[in-house]
Each structure stands twice: as structure tokens, then as C-alpha cells.
Amino acid sequence: MIMLHLETITKDNWVKAISLRVREDQVNFVASNAVSLAQLNFLENFHAKGIYLGEEMIGFTLYGIDEDDHEYWMYRMMIDQKHQGKGYGKEAIQLVMDDIKAIKEERHQTITLSYEPENEHAKNIYEKMGFKEVEGFVISGEQVARYTF
Asked: Boundaries of each N-acetyltransferase domain copy (predicted)?
């Protein structure tokens, strides 16, 4: 069985990252990977990584230490439309959580993320992974959820 793994986005794989697409009905749920890579220029302590199934990049994630609360945030998580519905999203979230656990300092106690309230699928996956909605905490119309170590 081929396992998923993360690889840093570099000059060698960024074009593949920006070519990944979510389904048409999900376009409003997540910023494009091109926007995420542009945003990375203005974020310190953030990691842009491709989600790989063997040698093939099937998804993208962006996470790091937020400058406002100095805790880890997962800003982006996406799986390409051709690979959705196979459990890769849940596995990719676990990879990010494991990576953060391996690099975080003792003072970092949480991983936070946000999602469109109508994105029930994302909400369900994040709940299964141990994220809990933060009551009344909405950013740009997105519900905030938090995982505590």
C-alpha cells in the first residue's frame, strides 16, 4: 500500500501545486494554491507542502505559526478532485498534525483552522480528527475550529 507523505513546495514542484483543482462545487471553499503560494511571501514560520501519493502530488497544504496568536494554524488543505473520496484528506490532516507535533515548541498548545460553514464535509472530517468549533469565533465568514494537544 502506498502511503501519503508531505514534501516542501520548491521551484521544482510549484507548477504542479498550482495545477491541482478541487471540484467545481468546492471552488468557493478554499483559496487557489497559487494564491496560497503568493501569500507565503508574507508569512513567516509557514510551510507550503505538497501532499504526495507515491511520486504524484495529489494535494496541497499551508500551515505555520500565526502572527496574531503565535499558535499553529492550518490555513489551507486541499485534495485534487481526481483523488477525493478516498480517505486522503483525513490522512493528509493527520500528516500535518504529526509534522506540527514534531516541530512545535512546548508553548504551542493548539492547531487552529477555519472553513466555510456550509462545507459540511470538511466540518465532519475535522471533527473526526479532534477539532472542536470555537463558539462564536468566525473569521471572514468562516467557522474556526481548534485542536488542543
From this structure: 4-149
- What's the grid cell of residue 82? 481526481
pLDDT in tens, 120-134: 999 999 999 999 999
| Alpha carbon distance 84, 118 (integer Å) | 18
Name the grid cell of 97: 498534525
CA 146 to chain centre: 13
CA neighbor of 49 nearest in space, from 67, 64, 29: 64
CATH, residue 83: 3.40.630.30
The residue range of the domain holding 29 is 4-148
Report the distance separating Cα 14 and Cα 34, nearest Å: 9
As a whole number of angstroms, the distance between CA 49 and CA 70 comes to 20
**Identity of the residue numbered 130:** G
What are the distances in angstroms from CA 16 to CA 49, 51, 70, 147? 11, 11, 30, 30
pTM: 0.95
Buried b (16+ CB within 10 A) or exposed e, 79-88: bbeebbeeeb
